[in-house]
Amino acid sequence: MSKLTVEGVGMFEVAETKRMVNTLIDDVKIDQLHACGGFARCTTCRVQFVSGEPSKMTQAEKDVLTSRGLVGQSGLRLSCQILCDHDMTVRAISRLAGSGRADAGKHPEENITPPAVWTERATG
Ligand code: FES
Fold this sequence. Notes:
With 124 residues, this protein is α+β, with helices and mostly antiparallel strands. The protein has helices spanning 20-26, 59-67, and strands at 2-6, 10-14, 46-51, 56-58, 76-78, 88-91, 118-120.
C-alpha cells in the first residue's frame, strides 16, 4: 500500500496498482474532472504535485502535455496516467465545481489507457 495525500482533504492508503484518477474518485471522493475517461486526451484530470512526483511518465501523457504546452509547468501531471505506487502529495486543481461542465466524465478503466508505454518524465 502507498499513501496518497491530497492537500486540504486528507491522507489515503491505496493499492500500488491503482490509477491516481480512480483513487481521487473512489477513495478520496472528490469531484475530480476526467472528461476523456482517462485516455490522456483532455488534461482535465491534472493534479499539482507537492511531493513524490513520479520520475516515469507514459508516452501518452508526455505527448498531450507537450501538445498543450503544459510540459514546462513544474509538478503538473495527469492523474489518469499515474499509478499510486509510492507515497505522494498532490493538490486537486481541476474539479467539477465551478467548471461549467455537466459532469466529471466517464469513470476511467481500471488499467491505464491507452496501455502504458513508460518513459522518463518530460522536463520542458
Ligand atoms: S487526460 Fe483525460 S482523464 Fe486524464
